[in-house]
Amino acid sequence: MGILSKRIVVLPGDGIGPEVCSEAVRVLRAVSSRFGHEFEFDYQLMGACAIDATGSPLPDATLEACRRADAVLLGAIGDPKYDNDPTAKVRPEQGLLGLRKALGLYANIRPITAYDQLLEHSPLKAERIQGTDILIFRELTGGIYFGEKGRSEDRTWAYDHCTYSRDEILRIAHRAFKAAETRRHQFTLVDKANVLETSRLWRETVQSIAPEYPSVALDYLFVDNAAMQIILNPKQFDVILTENMFGDIISDEASVIAGSLGLLPSASVGDGAALFEPIHGSYPQAKGKGIANPIATILSAALLLDHFNLQEEADCVRDAVQHALDQGVVTPELNPATLYSTEQVGNFIAYSVLDIADCEVHRNNIKLGMSTII
Ligand SMILES: NC(=O)C1=CN([C@@H]2O[C@H](COP(=O)(O)OP(=O)(O)OC[C@H]3O[C@@H](n4cnc5c(N)ncnc54)[C@H](O)[C@@H]3O)[C@@H](O)[C@H]2O)C=CC1
Ligand SMILES: CC(C)CC(=O)C(=O)O
Ligand SMILES: [Mg+2]
């Protein structure tokens, strides 16, 4: 692959979003410096910060910039002042949901990995989780998050409609089957087909195309059982396909296998645009404290590089993350005794992308209380 020139829209968002995004951008700058690519970063507003600045959680300028970008990198959105005000008419989440819909990002792909370096810190038994490698396909632009919602006039009852069409299921199901063909050929549809009509449509639709993928073994699991099985025996899973809300919940749950919500990246894709985001939210309690783990966003940047077909560059970022874990350069939720901040972990990974030897020097500098910034 030759030298590339790409425009990346960055949506830092709220809470820890700006902190973890700066580290991912630092790592992308290290990639461009090492491999000679030109990445232009265009910062835009979305979420609570956008409401504060413009009155809208997804300003037109942001949407336009995202439409024109080669890729979008998102931190996270959300702020307690809206979470704690159920009557707020304009909400940060409307920005994110609106962007996903407007860009047609119907598939959110969430890899779940157990890291050998973190097994001893896990509340789960090491032998149960070691080697876990799951790819969750979460439908992202349909279901209950996008259905009609409302309240009665006296505000004593409320509703959220869940709807799915066969076409919405087909397009993500084909993607998930194709991924299973390149992996371990196991495919689990997670639903609640014993109760929900939408889930019965999911089963019927997935069953109808399964014969097109004869090498893939199709299995079904009700979501309540799936939530338990993921913790009890995660290694039984390869590709999981599920609808929007179930995917949201079981992937946060699966982060316990990795060791922290701050480790899990994702790619949100459709037929054109692509957005890369950690699976976590804005973790407002950690804002400004320098304790947020930037690795989920840095690994999302690696997925962004995959999207540009920059395989060596993406692998270089993943190797640098492994190197940080090997060396114990992690944020406090992974090791309460750690000395490392969000910025220091990001810096270490960026240095490691540039050159492993420099990275060792940098690590010693951190120990001496000196911070070297790229
Ligand atoms: N994609 C997005 O932008 C998302 C936004 N949200 C929003 O975020 C706000 C907070 O929601 P919560 O339910 O508290 O979810 P959250 O994902 O922000 O945090 C939940 C817990 O996960 C851990 N955590 C999350 N990110 C971490 C990181 N980078 N490093 C270390 N630990 C981390 C912390 O223990 C935290 O208390 C809300 O306003 C919510 O709507 C929630 C999920 C996704
Ligand atoms: C607005 C929410 C649906 C965000 C969220 O929890 C997620 O995408 O994981
Ligand atoms: Mg979520």
TrEMBL record:
Main location group: cytoplasm
Residues noted as binding Mg(2+) in the record, renumbered to the chain: D224, D248, D252
Signal peptide: none
InterPro entries found in the cross-reference section: IsoCit/isopropylmalate_DH_CS, IsoPropMal-DH-like_dom, Isopropylmalate_DH
EC number: 1.1.1.85
Function statement: Catalyzes the oxidation of 3-carboxy-2-hydroxy-4-methylpentanoate (3-isopropylmalate) to 3-carboxy-4-methyl-2-oxopentanoate. The product decarboxylates to 4-methyl-2 oxopentanoate.
GO cellular component: cytosol
The species this protein was found in: Hymenobacter wooponensis
Localization of this protein: Cytoplasm
Domain Isopropylmalate dehydrogenase-like: 7-349
Protein name: 3-isopropylmalate dehydrogenase
Cofactor details (free text): Binds 1 Mg(2+) or Mn(2+) ion per subunit.
Superkingdom assignment: Bacteria
Swiss-Prot/TrEMBL keywords: Amino-acid biosynthesis, Branched-chain amino acid biosynthesis, Cytoplasm, Leucine biosynthesis, Magnesium, Manganese, Metal-binding, NAD, Oxidoreductase
Reaction(s) this enzyme catalyzes, per UniProt: (2R,3S)-3-isopropylmalate + NAD(+) = 4-methyl-2-oxopentanoate + CO2 + NADH
Binding site for substrate: R100, R110, R138, D224
Top EC class for this record: oxidoreductase
UniProt keyword annotation of Magnesium present: yes
Subunit structure: Homodimer.
Cofactor: Mg(2+); Mn(2+)
Pathway noted in the entry: Amino-acid biosynthesis; L-leucine biosynthesis; L-leucine from 3-methyl-2-oxobutanoate: step 3/4
A single BP term in Gene Ontology: L-leucine biosynthetic process
Site (Important for catalysis): Y145, K192
Family that this chain belongs to: Belongs to the isocitrate and isopropylmalate dehydrogenases family. LeuB type 1 subfamily.
GO molecular function, one term: NAD binding
